[in-house]
């Protein structure tokens, strides 16, 4: 599977915004790690601008990058509504070609997990490094692989509201240890059991020492690693790895 084929869960930007309405832990963390006011900030896998817009509102020159044009259209609409001059561009994060470099590049929403192969990860980090100013920071998150949680296939149900209807969502998650990829499928049903379709996503897990080696390989120094966006210490059972990395010289 290619990264570009792994985007179907983002086909409804309005639903994405509803799902994450009120969640701002990552935004607050990033707002607390900004460079001097007026600096450039690049927000990778920016989606509908959930982080780009608050950073721009704080007085920064923001460039948001995403692969999904529908998400970018929604981000542009929100920026126009708020009168914020954010530049939103459709590009592959593995092949960035921006006219700006920045002292801060961020990538939230566990988007690091969209890079499914070693080559994908390498190309993305090379791309980030090319656009990060010397001594600049790259802040991103990725889910921490907890073996006990990934060992067995998981199937669970949730309920959501959509268009005034109560929707049953059945989630199935299966992990492949060799590829370190979790395959997730969501099936949706109306209250009477009528199928409403399904979507899926595949996510690569990277282990803590593996991640440290990968970052060093691309001349990033891991300054801090937290267990979540609130800044809790990283532990074996933490749900996330929130990484603050600095670009080393040269």
UniProtKB/TrEMBL annotation:
CDD domains: AdoMet_MTases
Stored InterPro entries: Methyltransf_25, SAM-dependent_MTases_sf
UniProt keyword terms in alphabetical order: Methyltransferase, Transferase
Any GO MF annotation of the entry: methyltransferase activity
GO BP terms: methylation
The Methyltransferase domain, residue ranges: 41-136
Superkingdom field: Bacteria
Matches recorded under Pfam families: Methyltransf_25
Name of the protein this chain belongs to: Methyltransferase domain-containing protein
Organism per entry: Bhargavaea ginsengi
């Amino acid at each position: 599977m290619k990264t570009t084929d792994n985007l179907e869960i983002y086909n409804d930007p309005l639903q994405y915004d509803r799902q994450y309405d009120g969640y701002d832990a990552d935004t607050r963390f990033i707002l607390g790690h900004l460079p001097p006011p007026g600096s450039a900030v690049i927000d990778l896998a920016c989606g509908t601008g959930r982080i780009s817009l608050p950073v721009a509102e704080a007085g920064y020159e923001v460039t948001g990058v995403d692969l999904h044009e529908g998400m970018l259209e929604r981000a542009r609409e929100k920026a126009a509504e708020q009168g914020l001059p954010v530049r939103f561009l459709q590009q592959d994060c593995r092949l960035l070609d921006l006219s700006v470099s920045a002292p801060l590049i961020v990538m939230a929403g566990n988007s690091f997990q969209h890079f499914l192969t070693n080559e994908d990860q390498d190309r993305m980090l090379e791309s980030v490094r090319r656009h990060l100013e010397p001594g600049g920071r790259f802040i991103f998150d990725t889910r921490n692989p907890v073996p006990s949680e990934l060992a067995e296939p998981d199937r669970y149900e949730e309920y959501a509201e959509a268009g005034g209807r109560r929707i049953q969502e059945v989630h199935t998650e299966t992990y492949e240890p060799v590829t370190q990829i979790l395959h997730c499928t969501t099936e949706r049903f109306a209250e009477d059991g009528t199928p409403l379709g399904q979507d899926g996503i595949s996510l690569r897990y990277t282990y803590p020492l593996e991640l440290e080696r990968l970052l060093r390989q691309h001349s990033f120094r891991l300054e801090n690693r937290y267990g979540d966006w609130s800044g809790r210490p990283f532990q074996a059972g933490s749900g996330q790895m929130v990484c603050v990395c600095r670009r080393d010289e040269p």
